[in-house]
Amino acid sequence: YKAMGKFFKGLAASGAWACFDEFNRIDIEVLSVVAQQLLTIQNAMKSGVTKFIFEGREMKLVHTFAVFITMNPGYAGRTELPDNLKALFRPMAMMIPDYALVAEVMLFSEGFETSKDLSRKMVKLYKLSSEQLSQQDHYDFGMRALKSVLVMAGSLKRGSPDLDEQVVLIRAMRDSNLPKFLSEDAELFEAIVSDLFPGVEVPEVEQGDLARAIIESLEEHELQNVDKFVLKVVQMYETFNVRFGAMLVGPTGGGKTTVYRMLQSALTKLRQNGHENDNFQVIHTYVFNPKCIKMGELYGEYNLMTNEWTDGLGSTLIRNAVADTTPDKKWVVFDGPVDAIWIENMNTVLDDNCTLCLPNGERIKLNPGTMRMLFEVQDLAVASPATVSRCGMVYVPPEELGWRPFVQTWSKTKLHESAPEDLREWIVGLFDKTVDAGLKFLRKHLKEGIPSVDINLVASLASLFQSLARPERGVNLAMENQKQLKACLAKLFAFSYVWSVGGNVDAQFHDRFDEWAREFLNANVDGLGNLPNKNTLYDYYVVTTNPEEPKGRFAPWDDLVKKFAYNPNTPYFELLVPNVDTTRFSFLLERCLEVDKSLLLTGGTGVGKSVIIVDYLAKHAEEKDLVPVVINFSAQTPAYDTQLLIESKLEKKRKTKFGAPPNKKIVLFVDDVNMPARETYGAQPPVELLRQFQDFRGFYDRKKLFWKDVEDTTLICACAPPGGGRQEVTPRFFRHFNMLNVPPPSDASMKTILSSIYGGFLAVPGGFPGDFSECVKPVVDASVEVYRRMSEELLPTPAKSHYTFNLRDLSKVLQGILLISAEQCKTKDVMTRLWVHESMRVFHDRLISKEDKDYYKNMVAQVVKKNFADAPTFEDLFVDRSILFGDFLGGSAEPKEERVYREVPNVEKMVVLMEEYLEEYNASSTNAMNLVFFMDAAEHATRIARILRQPRGNAMLVGVGGSGKQSLTRFASFVAGFKCFSIELSRGYGSQEFRDDLKNLYQQTGIDGVPTVFLFTDTQIVEEGFVEDINNILNSGEVPALFDGQEKDRMCSDIREYAESINAPMGKDSLYQTFINRVRDNLHIILCMSPVGEAFRSRCRQFPSLINCCTIDWYMEWPAEALNSVSKRFLSSVELGSDETRASVASMCVDIHVSVTEISERFYQELRRRFYVTPKSYLDLINLYTSLLEEKRFELGSARDRLLNGLQKLDETNELVANMKVELGELQPVLKEKAAATEILLVQVAKDKEEAALVEARVAEEEAVAKKQADETKAIADSAQADLDEAMPALESAVKSLNALNKADIVEVKGFPKPPPLVRMTMEAVCLLLGEKTDWDAAKKVLSKGDFMSLLFEYDKDHIKAKIVKALTKYVDNPEYTPENVAKQSKAAMSLCMWTRAMHTYSRVAKVVE
Predict the structure, then answer these.
(1) How much is the average pLDDT of 104-119?
(2) Mean pLDDT along residues 32-41
(3) Is the pLDDT of residue 1285 over 70?
(4) Count of alpha carbons within 13 angstroms of residue 116, beta-carbon side
């Protein structure tokens, strides 16, 4: 509105007209303000004034001012104008013009003689096309399309004036429309043209020099000369000739980028060769992705706080292109999705105005002669018709190009240089024979987790084959024995074929693909030999490193699987049991990295995608010179933070060149790459940023807007298939990857993993007895069975969105079992109960209903009975006892390091122990808690304590408000000996303040090493970005862009001492990783969430780590016995008469709460409206009862006391009145005597009063006399004071002057053999005052005295004799004897002169005063 205000000020002051195009794209809030601004101006114009007040300032008004607006109603991204704005304008509906008349006039003006007939045919053609052709988003047959055809027809007519006019028009219509048509629509369009222009033969036009230059450019870039592709490049050129803006549209893999690059190369080549056609100029491109930056970063924006303008990337690139005034042509390429918001700002650029209008009012005029706008998009599904009509379209279908040109180019450029030409052709032949059939079978019969495009699979096949067929892998492509070499290559091709065409297939289709591939490959790949019979082709790899087997050999992956050795000192989260899946996917990852091919692992949650990648990178980083960088995406991940995080890991090589350290390669691993939420129109900015990196190997600097090249960096990604918060990602991004679908591990595989770890744990020397090895099978089998049944039978629903179980949960069961020690588990019964306890903590605690919990308990009892020897019954497990384990049973005196995880033998004793802990907590804390440890509360406390004991244990506590989540967390933190931290919300608390709190938390846990619980509740989520940061901490421990460079250096410096103590590497990145690891080890996040409403479900979906990285504990409604114990506890301190009454009141509270809960459920069932009754409501009920009881008791007590006090006072008053009556009777005679005495006394008083009046008169006279004398005395005192005021300055001046004298000054006076007259006179006066002779000799003696100055300072000026004063007066009255005159003869004498005169004055005044 400020920018609009500026417009209106200028227009009103100048009286100009203005047209605001696309006016309804302004936000509704701004339009309301604009209405007020316009109303102010219109009212001033109606009043006829020439000056008016606008936005608080007086302004000139010229009455020719006028505003016009144009707008398209009802498009995406448009706003309905508010009524107060509509009322200020006269609406005018624009009708669709008569196309035939417009076409006739334009054709006539272009020189066509048969314009009337041609115009009708042309309009008919467009009408039939819009009706008969398929409906595509990028088709437009409107006025702008018509006009571009007419302009082209005019230029063709002038170029070939003798050509038949029908042929000219047909050629113009073809050239304008064919580029945008799908192949089937192109045929239909040609048929309509031949029907409208029967018998007209249109000769083919030779493009000549341009086509030859395009072919040369293709050859230079080692690309293939495909006729249809060359035609597309020519069509691109022709579209640019008639349109200022053009769009390359089409699915990924069709060669859109190559089209404009080849056209750029061809035109530049023609100009450099000095071609005569001036249309062929050197081409410069300015390429960027408009969706990997925010709207404000694209066109520029104002800072709302400082009102400072920051330029945008798009506006800067366009301004740079405008600034280049050479004849070279400039193309600004927008390589990214088009939506109805950002592209609309280009409307004035793409129409005849060719002007970019920026939010700050700047208007950049583009040069239509040398500039073009190019948009490279997949589709225009969300673009508005206004955009489509303004651009020329070139549709690039992938099927026209196909995959063969890619393979031919690859065979010449990517295969090892030692391969002879005939071998390259043989390899291309393998592709020719197999690829089409494989793609057809895949699309028809199989299903992929994430859809791929054909060219993507072919590129994956090629890159995988390339990585295997290398001398480093033992394959000598120059081998003389071609038969053996081809046999080896055939096996490698078959392996690559399975893992590319079939690599992205869902696991349940592996057998089907294997069955087809065996038969098909045997029939079509020469020299393949016999394929392995056992299992599937997915279970084999090709051995090529054995020189004795030059033909290669299929070997099972099991041969590569390394043995697992359990190490009790290795943290549980670092344990990885190698199996077939980790081995084969690590192998494929390694092959991809060797040829710098990006890899995408997909598959369900918890199948081990991230573990495989992270483990490979950790183990091979040193050996392969890799620098791993891990980023975790979530729903709220912004592109800006992503870029900052990536850039922080890169090393600056030159100003615009970044990359890995020397001789190393960065592997950028992005986990959950499809998590970022889609914008309104479907784009995902972080993904678009990564796509820009994949396409162009770099980024634009977000501040200085220059391009940064990134070298030696390979992108690796992992994600689960779309659904449940995960989005579909643009194929333009995923087509860069070799896509592999990680299958969920089989039961056998899971049992192998668990058995390896658990068996190793039990077999640790000096630990469990040997017979405990019998526990391995039952524990592992039971764990897998429980996991399988939970995954298949308790499925997620909207109310149970967190019922998503994956292999992490299975792993957590085993992690809990590994907490026990042999001393605390001496019998197998304890181990059985421990397994039941740990599986309940993982699976049972997240269940939300009694039915689900009962189902789980019954299932566990069945599983125990089935798998364990001497199995306990259901009653033994769940009825007769509560199975609980904990490490806090030794009491608070037990050192934290010595605590052991053990079974709780007696629940009652544990509750007493908890109450002791609570007393200690309340004694040491300012916020005392009044907790009641009923069974549920005690169990929840042990669960939290268990989670805090586990390394990197985090929890999400879910329950309605007031369930005790926060209180129990604080209690459990105290029990565990951890510090509990929670943020404090204040006014204006935002992301910056939250990040500051996180920095302090990182300092506390990472540098100071303080074990800390971060308690975070959903009520503290001011911005969803908070949850994004929490998600990152849970997942990787690192928050993107939390620390700037200096802070990071400081952390690395501070952690160095700790790193040395654990022998960690000392590199900068290693130190920072050590810091992050220490934070993760010391920081436990406890999230407290409420399941009420949509927020909890939405966050679980958007931030997967909340479920994957947390143990979930669901707080159920408090049971009746819990409610009863709480009410008894709270009422225990209240006097209710008897224990029976107290018990009745307690049970009444329970009945009230339970009945309201039941009726609220009925309320929901009948009216579908929720009324929540929480434990907090119950506590409020009890507190309200006790406070009301106290209040009423106080009121009744006060009333009773008032009544008793009143009665007592009445009794006392009656008694007093009776006593007073008796006393009154006794005092009557005394009263009469007193009255007589009083009369006598009154007579005496009157007499005394007269005498007093006489005395008073006399005193008044004396007072008047005394006052007169006092006034006279005051006058004398004032006079004396005035005289003193006169004398004192002279005296002070003299003393000050004496202070300035030093020994040298005295010597100077004394040294006169014959003193000057005034000096002599001065010394005589001094001697006179000091009582000495008044000659020079006496004066010299006086000056020689050591205490001469003291004599002067201490001189008794109050008692100078009258004789001396009289003698001194002679000197003082001498007109020559003044300080000024004496100073001319001696400075020291002047001070003495001043002193003598001061003494004279003081003496005279003192006499007067006396």
Answers:
(1) 89
(2) 88
(3) no
(4) 0
CA distance 184 to 241: 26
The identity of residue 252, as a single letter, is T
**Which structure tokens are listed for 1098?**
């939405």
3-state SS class at 199: coil
Give which of 442, 412, 259 is closest to 333, Cα–Cα: 259
**pLDDT of the residue at 741:** 93
Residue 1157's Cα: distance from chain center in Å? 40
Q: Which of 627, 703, 692, 708 is nearest to 666 (CA)?
A: 627
Hey, what long-range contacts does 1045-1048 have (CB within 8 A, 24 or more apart)? 1045/648, 1047/999, 1048/648, 1048/1072
pLDDT for position 1315: 85
The pLDDT tens digits for 999-1034 are 999 999 999 989 999 999 989 998 888 898 898 898
pLDDT at 1410 over 70: no
Bridge partners, 714 (sequence order): 667
Spell out the long-range contacts of 226-229 with Cβ–Cβ below 8 A and sequence spacing 24 or more.
226/401, 226/405, 228/400, 228/401, 229/255, 229/258, 229/259, 229/400, 229/401, 229/405
d(CA 979, CA 1083): 10
Q: What is the mean pLDDT of residues 1028-1054?
A: 86
Residue 383: predicted pLDDT: 85
The residues near 438 (Cβ < 8 Å, ≥ 6 apart) are 497, 501, 502, 517, 520
d(CA 1136, CA 1155): 24
Tokens of 593: 């990295």
Separation of alpha carbons 1328 and 171, rounded Å: 137
Under 8 Å between Cβ of 22 and 347: yes
**Rounded mean pLDDT of 976-982?**
90
Return the pLDDT at 1: 66
Please, what's the b/e burial string for 392-413 (b: 16 or more CB within 10 A of its CB; e: otherwise)?
bbbbbbbebbbbbbbbbbbbee
pTM of the model: 0.75
Q: How is 813-837 classified by DSSP, letter by letter?
A: HHHHHTTB-GGG--SHHHHHHHHHH
**How far apart, in whole angstroms, are the C-alpha atoms of residue 983 and residue 1012?**
13
Instruction: Tokens for 287, please give them.
Output: 């390429």
pLDDT band (50, 70, 90) for residue 1199:
very high
pLDDT category of residue 2 using cuts at 50, 70 and 90: confident
Ramachandran area for residue 1331 (φ above 0: left; ψ -120 to 50: alpha; else beta): left
The residues facing 70 across adjacent strands are 21
How far apart are the C-alpha atoms of 673 and 634, rounded to whole Å? 8
The reported pLDDT for the residue numbered 75 is 66
CA distance 652 to 998: 28
Residue 886 pairs with which residues in a beta bridge?
Answer: 902
Tokens of 1291: 């005296």
Look at residues 235, 227, 736 and name the one whose alpha carbon lies nearest to residue 218: 227
Render pLDDT for 150-175 as a digit per residue (tens, 0 to 9).
888 888 888 888 888 898 888 888 88
Angle, helix 421-445 to helix 404-413, in steps of 10 degrees:
140
Do residues 1371 and 1399 lie in contact, with contact meaning Cβ atoms separated by under 8 Å?
no
pLDDT value at residue 1290: 63
Q: Are 139 and 186 in contact (CB under 8 A)?
A: no
Structure token pair of residue 1362: 């009258």
Mean pLDDT computed over every residue of the chain: 87
Q: What is the pLDDT of residue 1170?
A: 80
Identify which of 1100, 1029, 1076, 1034 has the alpha carbon closest to the alpha carbon of residue 637: 1029
Q: Which two tokens stand for residue 636?
A: 């709220």
CA dist., res. 1357 & res. 258, Å (int): 115
Q: Kindly indicate the confidence band of residue 1284, based on its pLDDT and cuts at 50, 70 and 90.
A: low
Q: Closest Cα partner for 639 from 679, 669, 598?
A: 679
Partners of residue 718 on adjacent β-strands: 601, 671
Q: Which residues are CB-neighbours of 554 under 8 A, at least 6 positions away? A: 491, 531, 532, 540, 541, 542, 543
Determine the Cα–Cα distance for residues 842 and 1111; give it in Å rounded to an integer. 7
